[in-house]
Specification:
The chain has 2 helices and no strands. With 105 residues, it is mostly helical. The chain folds into 2 domains: 36 residues; 49 residues.
């Protein structure tokens, strides 16, 4: 029985040695793979955010805003002109009425 036990111990020891050798070989293969890989590209040293040009959608939005603003300014100008003419006509009518009242006295 001790002969069988000795054989079993020798087989276990050999298996452990083989397992360690296999692990060592796998580690060497992994290390070789890492050594042959190219280093990762380094990011540029400049950390400023560079903005690309505006997209077509942004340009359309800007153009639409300018058009709407222009139409709004045009309507505001027309409204101011109408108010000014109304005040001028009112002033002429009141002056005429005031002149008529002054003549009757």
């Amino acid at each position: 029985m001790s002969d069988a036990l000795a054989k079993a111990e020798a087989a276990a020891s050999e298996a452990a040695t083989n397992t360690a050798a296999v692990q060592l070989a796998l580690a060497a293969v992994e290390l070789a793979k890492l050594a042959h890989q190219q280093p990762a590209a380094q990011p540029p040293a400049c950390h400023q955010a560079h903005r690309q040009g505006r997209s077509p959608g942004e340009w359309l939005g800007i153009g639409a805003a300018v058009c709407v603003g222009g139409v709004g300014i045009a309507f505001a100008s027309i409204a101011i002109a109408i108010c000014g003419m109304s005040v001028a006509i009112l002033a002429l009518v009141l002056r005429s009425i005031w002149g008529d009242i002054q003549k009757k006295r």
